[in-house]
Design brief:
Elements: H1 4-23, H2 27-30, H3 32-43, H4 49-62, H5 72-81, H6 94-109, H7 120-140
Length: 143
């Protein structure tokens, strides 16, 4: 069973790793988040093959490009790809919200009117936070 501490760890660790991966070293995001989620599940005595496959797929999804050199098709693919692996474990409402948050914050961060408020650090934190919410619900539902 995932304890409250495990859920809090996911809610704090995921946005932290997502943000640090954007600022400093990409592998913190690309490999760190899936490994972190698996460690929390393992410590919580959750051994689920679908969760393992979901984390592998999330790792692959986090390697996709979405930056300024990508087109909008790739950004939409990335938004859907970071959410879709959770569906291997089970459906959760937050799987719909996460792509919307990513695309919305990306648009706002590149809008001249909003770019000072929604700079990319804020966007990374929000996307990481919603990813943490999604996976805390998915992992918590395995108990």
């Amino acid at each position: 069973m995932v304890t409250e501490c495990g859920i809090l760890a996911i809610l704090i660790g995921t946005p932290l790793l997502y943000s640090l991966g954007g600022m400093f070293w990409k592998p913190l995001r690309r490999f760190g988040i899936p490994l972190f989620l698996l460690v929390v599940a393992f410590v919580s005595h959750i051994y689920n093959m679908n969760l393992f496959l979901s984390c592998v797929a999330l790792c692959i999804a986090l390697h996709l490009g979405y930056g300024e050199h990508s087109n909008w098709f790739m950004r939409i693919v990335y938004a859907l790809a970071i959410s879709a692996p959770s569906l291997l474990v089970g459906f959760n409402f937050w799987a719909i919200v996460l792509p919307v948050v990513f695309l919305s914050t990306y648009i706002l961060s590149n809008s001249p009117k909003w770019k000072d408020i929604f700079n990319w650090r804020v966007c990374e934190f929000l996307v990481g936070s919603f990813m943490g919410i999604l996976y805390s619900q998915i992992i918590g539902g395995l108990c």
